[in-house]
Specification:
Distance between the termini of chain B: 60 Å
Number of strands of chain A: 14
Number of strands of chain B: 10
Shape of chain B: globular
Number of domains of chain B: 2
CATH topology of the largest domain in chain A: Rossmann fold
Strand content of chain B: 5-15%
Strand order of the largest sheet of chain A: 3-4-2-1-5-6-7-8
Number of domains of chain A: 2
Helix content of chain B: 40-55%
Order of helices and strands of chain B: EHEHHEHHEHEHEEHHEHEHEHHHHHH
CATH topology of the largest domain in chain B: 7-stranded beta/alpha barrel
Radius of gyration of chain A: 21 Å
Structural class of chain B: alpha/beta
Oligomer: heterodimer
């Protein structure tokens, strides 16, 4: 009998405390991995909801009995919002007086001090923990991962879910973050990316040798989604956008497309779920275009499943999308999907439409096609749902285990 | 002494151009002329010209002992006449030898029979007329698009005075019986020539497959298989593009064809015959009863490659429903476009069975997905309808 594989997993979010796809990913992935003779210690910043005395806390949360959760006192820190405009968070902090953090200024001092704090406390807290392999998720955890690799003389695996270039829509990557990303990639024994699209970026932007990178596509648990499409009994069709309102996700392209579609199908509602620094400008834009009565900004939603199920169509117009888990979530909810070609998920799904994110005319052509021809949307969603068979967290866990075994030898 | 009947079907799809919602009402130029010309040039260079040359050489070498049959769609001939007249000439040269029998079919390689009997008859007559003009020949044998066949189709074809019709040698219909005989259709009694799909597909599909335990297939080996077959006739029916396009020259397919006749003659018990000779020389041995429509396509040998999923059915029902109004318009360009939209390939591209029957669909599909294909088609139909209102 082989003893359990001891994995030290470093992440930044975990449900219900999450801002996007990474939390969902880590939950599905660690759950599946824990069933494969592994012991997982999960390290993350404390969530800010439970204020605990002491610097570091270890919680064996009931819901997450499959892993040891190590929380490091936390901060209301959102690394996936790259923009300069953080007034949005300040608003939120006002509503949440528990939040300790006072000033988050773009990529200012505070931003990196959080990462430093995370690094220092993780290294100190985990000093006596045994492990066989260290697995980091995204740049915020890289300094800690590198230090722990040094301390324990154990192999380091890093998974890149998005790069600084993705998060900023390639416009203004922060050089310090790029440096941390690059360092982690080069010091890691093995790099996992969630698509070939991402792999190619790492080769081009960071000179990572191709043979050092393994591609492991995302998984999804179909059973968690609502498959019977609920109707809102409106005589309007609903087209859904769901994602952070940042340049990366292309919400402005969504509005351009909405404008085109409404010329032909005025009875259409465009629902935008998500928060982000672009929200004010998007609202202004919809007013300027004269379509503000047709666009609904719902803000951030904890329960996105309902939205997928009431939508007639899901659109993911990302400018640069390392994977695009939302596309799979929509497919799991029996909703037809249009995705941008600039996405990792477009490499692996067939039963959807794929359009260049900037081609709002073609996007409109396809939206109208799907909304006007029931036979088209029926066929697409039926086949897409079966296609999801190929995306299980179990497969993700198996492939990552292979990577662990590779670096341990 | 079994007679070998070689029959080649010649056709190229008429690909639609990318036709968006924003084109509707503004543009009724539906076809991608440059892509169609590109593929036609490639097919002419890789298949039609070199294969015609091999066949002509074989006729010169073996004289009247070597014969075979062709059918060529009307839309294909139109394209050739416009862009590559030298290819038409090379077909004419073959036909002029007298060793080649031509089969009729629908002008547009279409699903016309499913639109209406009237439309079907019309398209067959158009095709006959075209053959008369180009080759000076009136065919006696008929093959429907993709060998779609049923008792009813056979009966309509019989009424049009054809002497025989082509069908797939369906094993579920034949049961213990062999396809290597002449049958008659249930009802009309028209003679039926059944494709020997095992031996035909050995060339058309398996020839270059290294996973096949008979690879590599040589002319002498194949001739020995033919020779050991029982029955009166061995009907080897396949797409002409098998030579050079589906099976590339590098697979040795041309050498295979070049040596097949002499290897067949070496067997001592084989001869080549045209379809007309076969129905004259051999008696009818039984009845062929197909109450539903079958075809020679895919693994299912039915209509499912064209009319299975919701998109295909919707698209087809719409084109079908326009018949009366379109014909009533008497607008010849509109009628022609409507007929071109009946071409079976459009529906084939909408097929979602990819995963079940391999890459055949994907390889020949100009679209990224069946959904793209449907949407393009649906947009063109919307324009077609808008023209109807105006005219």
């Amino acid at each position: 009998m082989v003893s359990d594989l001891n994995v030290l997993m470093l992440g930044w979010e975990f449900p219900p405390f999450k801002s996007g796809g990474l939390g969902t990913y880590l939950h599905g992935f660690t759950k599946a991995l824990s069933k494969k003779d592994t012991k997982i210690t999960f390290v993350m910043p404390s969530t800010g909801v439970k204020i605990n005395p002491g610097f570091i806390e270890v919680i064996q949360a009931d819901n997450y009995s499959h892993l040891d959760l190590v929380e490091i006192e936390g901060f209301d820190f959102h690394p996936y919002f790259p923009s300069e405009n953080y007034s949005f968070f300040e608003e939120r902090e006002k509503q949440n007086p528990d939040s300790v953090n006072k000033s988050i200024n773009a990529y200012g001092f505070d931003f990196f001090s959080k990462v430093r704090k995370y690094t220092v406390s993780a290294v100190r807290k985990l000093k006596s923990r045994q492990c066989d392999v260290i697995h980091c998720h995204d740049w915020m955890t890289f300094p800690a991962g590198i230090a722990l690799k040094e301390q324990k003389k154990k192999p380091l695996v890093v998974t890149i879910h998005s790069t600084e270039f993705d998060r900023t829509g390639n416009l203004s990557p922060n050089s310090q973050i790029c440096e941390i990303e690059g360092k982690g990639l080069h010091l890691a024994d093995r790099v996992i990316t969630i698509s070939n699209y991402m792999k190619q970026q790492l080769i081009e932007r960071y000179n990572v040798p191709s043979e050092k990178i393994s591609v492991v596509y995302n998984g999804i648990d179909k059973s968690e989604y609502i498959t019977d499409s609920t109707s809102l009994a409106l005589n309007e069709k609903i087209v859904l956008f769901l994602g952070r309102l940042t340049i990366q996700k292309g919400p402005d392209w969504f509005l351009e497309t909405a404008f085109q579609v409404l010329k032909f199908l005025p009875n259409t509602k465009f629902v935008v779920v998500g928060d982000g620094d672009m929200l004010p400008s998007l609202i202004n834009k919809s007013i300027a275009m004269g379509i503000s009565d047709k666009v609904v900004f719902s803000g951030f939603q904890d329960d996105v499943k309902k939205f997928y199920s009431v939508a007639d169509l899901f659109v993911m117009p990302s400018v640069s999308e390392p994977f695009g888990l939302t596309a799979l979530e929509a497919m799991a909810s029996n909703t037809p999907v249009i995705i941008s070609k600039q996405s990792g998920v477009s490499e692996v799904v067939n039963h959807c439409f794929k359009v260049d994110f900037w081609d709002s005319h073609e996007m409109a052509n396809k939206i109208i096609g799907l909304l006007s021809h029931e036979s088209l949307s029926n066929e697409m969603k039926k086949n897409a749902f079966s296609e999801l068979q190929g995306f299980s967290w179990n497969t993700v866990a198996d492939q990552c285990l292979e990577v662990y075994k590779g670096v341990m030898n | 002494m079994p007679s070998v009947c070689l029959y080649f079907h010649v056709h190229q799809p008429l690909r639609l151009r990318h036709y968006s919602l924003f084109d509707i009402g503004k543009n009724n130029d539906y076809f991608d002329d440059s892509a169609n010309k590109f593929y036609l040039e490639r097919a002419s260079r890789k298949c039609y010209l070199p294969t015609n040359k091999v066949l002509l050489d074989l006729i010169e070498k073996h004289g009247e002992k070597f014969k075979f049959c062709f059918s060529i769609t009307g839309v294909f001939l139109d394209q050739l006449e416009q862009d590559f007249p030298e290819v038409v000439e090379s077909f004419q040269k073959l036909v002029d030898t007298g060793n080649v029998e031509l089969f009729d079919e629908t002008y547009y390689h279409s699903l016309a029979y499913l639109v209406s009997k009237k439309e079907f008859v019309k398209q067959v007559k158009m095709h006959s007329k075209k053959f008369k003009k180009v080759f000076g020949v009136k065919p006696r044998i008929f093959r429907n698009t993709e060998a779609m066949y049923s008792n009813e189709i056979a009966s309509v074809v019989s009424e049009m005075n054809f002497k025989a019709i082509v069908a797939e040698g369906l094993s579920n219909t034949l049961g213990w019986r062999s396809p290597n005989f002449v049958y008659k259709a249930k009802g009309s009694g028209i003679k039926v020539l059944l494709r020997n799909y095992k031996l035909s597909d050995d060339i058309a599909f398996r020839f270059s497959s290294r996973e096949w335990n008979e690879w590599p297939l040589t002319a002498d080996k194949y001739a020995s298989w033919l020779s050991s077959n029982r029955g009166h006739c061995i009907n080897l029916f396949m797409d002409y593009e098998t030579f050079g396009e589906h099976q590339w020259e590098s697979t040795g397919i041309f050498n295979f064809l070049r040596h097949l006749p002499e290897e067949a003659f070496k067997q001592g018990n084989l001869e080549f015959s045209t379809a007309s000779e076969i129905i004259n020389d051999f008696p009818v041995v039984g009845e062929f009863d197909v109450p539903y429509i079958s075809s020679w396509a895919d693994v299912d040998r039915d209509l499912s490659a064209w009319l299975e999923n919701e998109m295909q059915k919707q698209a087809f029902n719409e084109i079908k429903s326009l018949e009366e109004k379109i014909l009533f318009s008497r607008n010849s360009k509109l009628i022609q476009d409507w007929r071109k939209m009946q071409i079976s390939d459009h529906f084939y591209y909408m097929c979602t069975k990819w995963f079940a029957d391999g890459d055949v669909h994907k390889y020949f599909n100009p679209y990224d997905s069946p959904y793209e294909s449907f949407l393009n088609y649906a947009n063109v139909l919307s324009d077609l309808k808008s023209r109807l209102k105006i005219s």
